[in-house]
Each structure stands twice: as structure tokens, then as C-alpha cells.
């Protein structure tokens, strides 16, 4: 069975409360629950991590490599636009990943359209709300 890591960056622990007009009303736990249900249907194992600290996410990516995780679904949140460290960790471990964003980062402030990860990702899903996570997960179905 494939194991996929679902990684969420800063402030996503506040989903459902934080700017619902942009990010929706679902909590991160709601999204994780939907993903777990779909993973069961697809025959995929999931592990979840959210952190507001960049170094914790880098260390987690390293742990995913050590544990031979098959792939990553990542919403780097604000780190999308700033984190060369996350990019380097993903490149160094060579774990295939899909970048997901709840909102359409290209239709927002201009600084949000720059991603340090998109060009090295298998693909990106942006602006589809929580459905984007489910779409990304389907990539790894058995």
C-alpha cells in the first residue's frame, strides 16, 4: 500500500476561522477526514502534518524520505512564496509531490503568484478549495 504524506504550512490550522471568504468554512480536520475516507477507497495510507514552523516541515520531509513515503501532497501556504528551504528539502529527497492551494494564488495579490515549488512539482492544483486535496490524492490511487 502506498503511503502519502499530507503536509500543511503556516496558519492552515486556522482553517474554518481564518478568512472564510477566501479559504472556506471547512477546518483542516474536516479536510483530513475527507482525505482519509477517500484514501480508504483508493487503497492509500495517509499521514498528516501541519506546522507553522518552516524547520519542522523541512525535518518532516526528511523523515518522509527515511520512511520511504511514496509521495507528498503539500499546501505550503505562505511558505510557497518564501521557502527555498522547503524547495531544497523536496529536491534533495526526490519525493514526488503535488502542490495544492485552496484559493487561486494567481488571482490574488501579485506576490502570491510566485511559487518556489511549482516548477519542481508533479503538478499544482489551485483555487479548487478542499477538492484540490482530493484531486491530488487520486493521483496516487492503486
Automatic annotation (TrEMBL):
Instruction: Supply the EC number(s).
Output: 4.2.1.10
The top EC class, named as a word, is lyase
Q: Where is the signal peptide?
A: none
GO molecular function terms here? 3-dehydroquinate dehydratase activity
Keyword tags: Amino-acid biosynthesis, Aromatic amino acid biosynthesis, Lyase
Q: Where is this site: Transition state stabilizer?
A: 18
What are the binding positions for substrate in this chain? 75, 81, 88, 102-103, 112
Which Pfam families did the record assign? DHquinase_II (PF01220)
Its annotated pathway reads: Metabolic intermediate biosynthesis; chorismate biosynthesis; chorismate from D-erythrose 4-phosphate and phosphoenolpyruvate: step 3/7
Could you tell me which CDD domains the record lists for this protein? DHQase_II
Query: What catalytic reaction does the record list?
Result: 3-dehydroquinate = 3-dehydroshikimate + H2O
Q: Where are the membrane-spanning stretches?
A: none
- Tell me if Repeat is a UniProt keyword of this record: no
SUPFAM superfamilies assigned to the protein according to its UniProt record, in alphabetical order: Type II 3-dehydroquinate dehydratase
Look up keyword DNA damage and say if it applies.
no
Q: Where is the active site?
A: 23 (proton acceptor), 101 (proton donor)
- The parts of the chain that form a coiled coil are none
What's this protein's function? Catalyzes a trans-dehydration via an enolate intermediate.
Matching entries from NCBIfam families are given as:
aroQ (TIGR01088), PRK05395.1-1 (NF003804), PRK05395.1-2 (NF003805), PRK05395.1-3 (NF003806), PRK05395.1-4 (NF003807)
Complex and partners: Homododecamer.
**Protein family per UniProt:** Belongs to the type-II 3-dehydroquinase family.
This chain belongs to the protein called 3-dehydroquinate dehydratase
Q: Which organism is it from?
A: Marinicella sediminis
Q: What is the lineage of its organism?
A: Bacteria, Pseudomonadati, Pseudomonadota, Gammaproteobacteria, Lysobacterales
